[in-house]
Automatic annotation (TrEMBL):
Belongs to the histone deacetylase family. It comes from Fodinibius halophilus. This is Histone deacetylase. Signal peptide: none annotated. PANTHER family: HISTONE DEACETYLASE 12, HISTONE DEACETYLASE HDAC1-RELATED.
Amino acid sequence: MRVSYSPGYYAPIPDEHIFPMKKFTGLYRYVLEQNLIDSSDIIEPSLVDMANLTTVHSHRYSSGIMNGGLEKKELRKLGLPWSKRLAHRSRLAVQGTINASLMALQDGIAGNLAGGTHHAMPDYGEGFCVFNDVAVAIKVLRQSMWAKKILVIDCDVHQGNGTAEIFKDNEEVFTFSLHGAKNYPFKKPPSTLDIGLPDETKDDVYLSTLGDALDDIFDQFSPDLVYYLGGIDPLESDHFGRLSLTLNGLGNRDRIVIKKVRAEDVPLVLLLSGGYAPTLQETVQAHALMYETALELAP
């Protein structure tokens, strides 16, 4: 399986910051060490073109990220300290998702060892999400006629408000979000399908809800390409998640999604999205589950 990755995915932030910026480098090393991905299948992205970035994001906001011109209140909302390295990593990660999309169309499945930044809106970032990589990739692929009908399966514990808002009037982009009902964001623009779960939802309810929802979605919608945002924050141990999945349950979640999409013979893009496990090692191993599962289910 080919994946996108660049050493530039890491941008320095204060050590005490809650966002696990080191997870990108850690996951890269882990998938190589565990022979989940061959080094020859790791494709390094370039910076996304501004013309592609601004299919979703305003010129004002995009330029503000590039040159450090955002106001303090915008940076507070974003939740990350601005730096040239942060701007650079954000453009790399968006191109990484575009590349993974094209690789999935060619190979059937591909991934980005980053991405899934679903809170970013057209004119601002929030929730540690600078640019909405999925939205940009969808716009680029649709404009280029690489794909027409897109399904976004968002299993991050936080609702994908940015993606929902961006595609709210587009019937050819189906946005599905399975998330914690009482969790961030507190204003949730409607996705095509939203399922909010109560606090402390455990494996059995979560997995049956997900399986039933996917069956219903594929009964009514036939996508050309699927994006899977496999956030690891539904784990019971997550700092912010408030749900109660075990690590085994998280792996079964990935198995349900990947198996269903592959059974429908639709190209699939794997993206990390969020997760705040107690340690970096736990974060990396949980994110690696989707790649272990994809390898296990490979034909």
